[in-house]
Amino acid sequence: MTESLFKISGGYVYDPKNEIDGQVKDLWVQDGKIVEPPTDPTTRPSKTLNATGFVVMPGGIDMHCHIAGPKVNTARKMRPEEKRQAEPVERSAISHSGTMGSVPSTFATGYKYAGLGYTTAFDAAVPPLSARHAHEEFEDTPCIDKGFYVLMGNNHYIMKAIQEHEPERLRSFVAWLLGASKGFAAKLVNPGGVEVWKHHQAGNVNTVDQEVDFYNVTPRHIIREMSRTVDELRLPHSVHIHCNNLGLPGNWTTTLETMQALEGHRGHITHIQFHSYGGGDGDEDTLNSKVTPLAEYVNSHENITVDVGQVMFGETTSMTGDGPLGYFLHNIYGTKWFSSDTELESGCGIAPIKYRNKSLVHALQWAIGLEWYLQVHDPWRVVMSTDHPNGGSFLAYPQIIRLLMDRTYRQDVLKTVNPGIRERSSLPDLDREYTLNEIAIITRAGPAKILGLTNKGHLGIGADADITIYAPHENKETMFELPRYVIKSGQVIVEDGEIRETLNGHTLHVAPDYDRDVEENIADWFEQYYSIRFRNYPVSDGYLHKPQKVACRSNI
Amino acid sequence: MTLQLRYKGSTNVPVEVEGITPCSLRDKTLAEIEQCTIFHGNDKVPLAEFFDVSGTASNEEMQWLGDLSGVHWIGAKMLRGKISIHGNGGRHIGSELQGGEIDVEGNAGDWVGAEMHGGTIHVRGNAGHLIGAAYRGSARGMTGGRILIDGNVGNEIGHTMRRGLLAVGGNAGDLAAFNMLAGTILVFGESGIRHGAGMRRGTLGFFGNNSPPLLPSFQHACRYQPEFVPLLFAQLKGHDFVVPEHLFTTEFDLYHGDLIEGGRGEILTVAA
Question: Which of A36, A59, A156, A474 has the largest count of CB atoms under 10 Å?
């Protein structure tokens, strides 16, 4: 018997990256990694898990969610009424207690992701000034590997470097900022628009070509220069873009122009559902789906990937680095609202929202999300997300899977929502059904590829032994909402929904090389404008809990 | 014999008895009642660890005895029945009450009748802050029922109150009816400042000898004798609540506000 050798035998393995589509296969695990089967036939594993009859997939990867940092924490504090009503997460001998609602507490977030078969998640919007806070919350988010994207789309230094046509300084700053915050990717949220919001009452940019006050740059400039910079740095993930004009009727043209502004560089358009609306003049009555022309553009441009930001019906909390969006939602729904200004870096807006299936707008948002899954031909370039918690909780993923895999169920649900969407969306005419292999792509293999995580999203030799084992069921929602086993780094952490181990995952970050001479200039900038001294800003390696540096790509 | 729970604890750590209501215990045996779970801090313990239990709950009545000022959530979410607290009670008495009666012989803590929907709570002594209020983050406070406090109360009573009656025989602190949506709050003693800030509708009555200063966003409308006031007072007297006789015939000054929120609320003060 070989110590620490773990065999998972006889399962139907779905590993799209290695072109394994439901074949019966044994997996061998050692030291948290998938390893070659022993060549010596007499070798016996120290532990065997009989997965005969079960479906085996890599652990899920949520590439766009909001689970840590100041906005999430503020949202938790804003929604005590939700937490009082939600079923509490009870503590056990090995796990902490927690609270649920649309913004679960840190420990509960880790347990619930693991319970759903997800082993990696990325917070999509952290101001670098608050990176330390996000890392502290990550330390209290067990069971999963995690990382965050750094808000850069309204950063004054970045806009100044673009304004002054200094691409090398921009490149060095972006690399320095990612390293200093221990972030994973560059995020643009309403590029330029948040800065305009800070200067004008109800301000925002309306097009990608509107100039930002004081910097004489436009969103198009920011998108083009940042996508080029990220490619030049060969970061594992492309620039991650929350487009301008989120949620507004007629915003699909802005989204199309954003894609065009990439000028062939890699770009990930996030929660694209919220950016695919026809109609005009801010009039919600004119709202309709423009997924078809946008999906055609995505289908014909391989530099672009998307995640959906699916809306699911029910109560949730919108949280965003898009300050004017928070104000917009507060005005529409008359709910409480939080807005903040992170000095030279970003903004933030938070407002509760309830998506109702009888509302034409909400039903259309739901339908548009599903259209995106069904109209992008290549599943490797569309990723499942609810923009947790903006469109709904990550706990809704099993229901989305059922909607994608079962068109009869989809049509049944369609009958229960506002009938007005039939003339405004192509969803009723779409009869595509996802296969298990395609589900494995949009929930794990695809996001891993898009994020440049070579050890994740697959079950090949050398991959992280993050594995989810499901009991097959005709109802795919039932199948995916309660995995039989979840294995993280080679350890069984969940069994039938019960937490068995609470190991802490890694914090994934990048540390790209850059010209160190830029630091003097950045230090001067800090001393002049920031509320924090330059030397106190970077998050040191020692501050992170189980850091894991992800290498830049060898080529783009 | 009515169910009696006699407190025998001597802890400074809060004891929380949420869910221990007459209707929830109605069909339980004494042994089962003793094993009902309560919280001592964050520890779950059986009820019998802190209370001597006797009698039966079959008549949907229960009595709490002893100094219960460290025992919280008595009668919370009660649907029906009657609770008598012979002594002082802690915080959150009758929180989210749906129906039935709660009578407190002594004093009560904060959050009495918070977010209650129906029923009656009568505190014979003083009570704390945020009586009948909304819990932090909630859209509305008490939405129905009646809270009668014979003694004094603290700040922010009726915070975001939506419906129902809250009457205070003694003095009140500051910020009564903050963000009030509707309902009635009557204070028969002296009171603090900034009442009715952000109120949209509803009625506040300040009937002490000295009328409180009102916010500038309240506008004097008239001096009159509203017909509904004596009816309201008579109803209060019918619930064993003391109303000074002279108030039945006095004149009141009517103010409208909060004008920032439309000015559909009203404040009555005794005409000087």
Answer: A59
